[in-house]
Amino acid sequence: MVERPASAVKELVENSLDAGATQVTVRLENAGRTLIEVSDNGHGMDAESAAKSLLRHATSKITTSDDLLKILSYGFRGEALPSIASVSRMILSTGVADGARTVITVEEGEILAPTSEPGPRGTTIRVENLFGNVPARLKFLKTDATELSACVDAVNRFAVLRPDVAFKVEHHDSVVLRTSGIGDPLTALAEVWSTETARALVPISTSNGYASVTGFVSPPHLTKPTRAMQWLYVNGRAIKSRTLTAAIDQAYRSLTPDRRYPVVVLMVDLSPAELDINVSPTKSEVKFHREGGVFDAVRRGIKDALLSHGMIPSMEQIAAVNEALGLLSQPTMDFPAATSYAVTPQPHHPYTPSEPAQPTSDGQNAAQAELLDGLRILGQVDQTFIIAENRTSMLVIDQHVAHERILYEMLVNTRGSTPVERQQLISPESISVPRHVAQMVAEKLDEFAAVGYDIEPFGQDTLLVRSVPALGRGKGALQVLHDLLDEIAEGASQGGWTPSRDDVYIMCSCKMAIKAGDPLGHAEMQKLIEDLAQTENPYLCPHGRPITIVWPKSDIRRRFKR
Question: pLDDT value at position 413?
Fold first, then answer.
């Protein structure tokens, strides 16, 4: 079923690759709404085959029933072209050699008499006015930026999988993607993502006798806030798999921060008889006959790749570090009183003191006073939870979500009605992004400006950042911006999310807040709780997660029968 322009782009590009193309060009207008044209230099079709390709369930890729057990082509159902043609005006032009080409026009499912035209070997399929005869489907499409991002993302995944094919995507005569097709996987990754990301990746190549795994994985320090840059392929087909995702998580367990995800491009190959690719209509899911064998190949392959490149410490290295730490360990000393909670050993965390909002009611005043009455810091557990007591209760406070609540209210309550204070950069910082992401950001400059980022497009794949929110001093506000771009780009490609100003506030406060695992001194924890007490809701973060657990001392005494 054709759900959106990206669905049609994916099906047409797959046909080009099945035809042995080494050059594929995709032209779009209005993000595919009014035009999708895919041209290739593949082997083409003769007049008879061209006519059959427009009939439902007619395919040249399956000749016997045995072929269903060893499917290696992208298409095999014979549904893509008829489905697209039924909701558009389609023009198919194809030829098996330079010279005359067969041209067949389909008007909303009605096949017209074929004609001919001169042209090169290969196939060009032109799809005009997609969903023109089913306007109800148009209502479900997102903005042009979102639909264009989804189209480009579909081609990006083919470009990484097939570095031997030169891909080009044009939108209104502007090139948003171009790959060289020289056959080098890292070059293709650099063209799709960025040179910086490609250079940081580690190659992986392994086999356990059941499945072979090749591709690239990132070192533990290179992570993203979402799984948008975890691309998985099975037998040359882009797929989603809980089994493979779980294997990746297992391989990186204890190596990457919580809620951060490594960059991964994995190509898994195994016997076609060992999997079912007919699980979903979009063929984006597969079912493995032996999930354990695939899980093991991926997990062990990633571990071995990281270890061979020195990215996982050996037992000897761990023992040496522990011994050195034992010699250097000294009794913990109390911190002096401080007015802010800035952690000197870790300057990349911005423990900026809040500007408390004025109490809005006597009830809120009373709640704040009760929280702070007799406050005493007892310590920190797992460098994540602050343990404290006040006159009536014992308190357990999640330091990350507490700071997130403080920063969120700074943006929304005390500064939401006026521009966020900005810190001008000494010189503009440039950020390289895929072209479709740059175009999408160009349409949302006001949203970024609202939270303190002064951004302007610079060329087709670069953004210039002239200022950052002053709230982010010392935290690496540019890294926060990178994370925001990653999340927004993923939301756009999936068509499920366009951020509001409040969404951006929540993301900024989450990413600028101190993290689980950050060590804090007593004075820092004291100031954090004091600032938390000034917020409108010191018990829930903007995402709705609990901040503070209160255990009344009276209940503790009762449980111990005192």
Answer: 63
